[in-house]
Specification:
Helices cover 62% and strands 0% of the residues. By secondary structure, the protein is an all-alpha fold.
C-alpha cells in the first residue's frame, strides 16, 4: 500500500484553509444563532463549528459538485439538533432575538431564514415532515417578531392589539 502523496496533501490543505477562511465567519454566526449565545461569548458555538469543520476536512475528497459549505451547515444543524448540544443547559444565559425560541425552533428558523434552505431540504436534514417544518418556522417567526407582553400586563384588556387577535373587542 502506498502512502499519501505530499503534493496532494498540500493542495488539499490549502483548499480547505481557503474554504474555512471564507465560510468560517458565516458558519460561526449560524452556530451562534443555534446555541443562542451572545456573539462575544460563544464557546458552545465555537466547539460546534470546530466539529463541523473537522467533519468537512475528513470528507474533503468529495465527489465533484458537492458543496463543502452545504456539508458544514448540515453537520452544524444535525449535530445541534440530535446531539447533546440540544439538551445541554447553556453556560451563559441566552440573549438576543432567538433566545425566546426552543432549540428545535431555532434550528428550523436558522436554516430556513438565515441560511436560506428550502422546506424540503430542512425537513430531510432534520428527519421531519415538510408540513411540520413549515409550522415550526411559522410559529418561531411569530414568537421572534411579536414577543409576549411584559409580565404584569396579563389579560386581554392591557394586551397589545396583536395579542387580542382579530375580531376581539378591546
Amino acid at each position: 500500500m502506498r502512502g499519501r502523496q505530499p503534493a496532494r496533501d498540500t493542495r488539499r490543505d490549502s483548499e480547505f484553509t481557503a474554504f474555512a477562511r471564507g465560510a468560517g465567519a458565516r458558519l460561526l454566526r449560524a452556530a451562534t444563532l443555534l446555541t443562542a449565545e451572545p456573539p462575544d461569548a460563544n464557546p458552545r458555538a465555537r466547539r460546534l463549528l470546530t466539529r463541523a469543520l473537522a467533519h468537512v476536512y475528513a470528507h474533503w475528497d468529495r465527489p465533484p459538485g458537492e458543496d463543502p459549505y452545504e456539508r458544514a451547515r448540515a453537520h452544524l444543524a444535525v449535530r445541534f439538533a440530535r446531539g447533546s448540544w440540544y439538551r445541554r443547559a447553556p453556560l451563559v444565559r441566552p440573549r438576543g432575538p432567538l433566545a425566546v425560541l426552543t432549540p428545535r425552533e431555532r434550528v428550523v428558523l436558522v436554516l430556513r431564514v438565515c441560511e436560506g434552505a428550502g422546506e424540503e431540504q430542512t425537513a430531510a436534514l432534520l428527519g421531519l415532515p415538510a408540513e411540520r417544518v413549515y409550522r415550526i418556522c411559522e410559529r418561531a417567526t411569530v414568537r421572534v417578531l411579536r414577543p409576549p407582553p411584559p409580565a404584569g400586563r396579563a389579560g386581554v384588556r392591557g394586551a397589545a392589539s396583536w395579542a387580542r387577535g382579530p375580531g376581539r373587542p378591546s
